[in-house]
Amino acid sequence: MTMPRVSMASSNTSSLVSAARFVVQFDGGSEITFSEMSGIVSEVEVTEYLASGKVGVSMSKQFGKTKPATVVLKRGVDQDYALWTWHQEVLAGQPTARRTCSLILLDMANVPKQTYQLLNAWPSKLEIGGLKAGGSEAVIATVTLTCEQIDLTKG
Known about the structure:
The protein is mostly beta strands.
């Protein structure tokens, strides 16, 4: 008999991951820095399977289609046009807009805590926050990166 896998909450708070900033780094060294990560979503649809047998009809839930993984990141709008240019490449349908990159979670001392490898990522959505004349709030850009696969590595 196999035992179910159980994950216990960590009582060692020093092992918890905390990030002061997030960097998307491309091959060749260029990078885009973000101040907030709303989340990483990886999802598999649930498919219902009906079977009939001697005891009647039974239903089970099975793995369905895998949805593309997404990452939502936020940053203040500045004079760096790299994110805008990348999204424009996607809008133009350029195949080179799909890029493998690393999402690096850095602590206050700029030490990498976790790195996510985003395979064939591209900005599927870019939203520039609302502006108010005379306001002192920073304008925020929110980007949704869609990718084929996300792999997690330590540090």
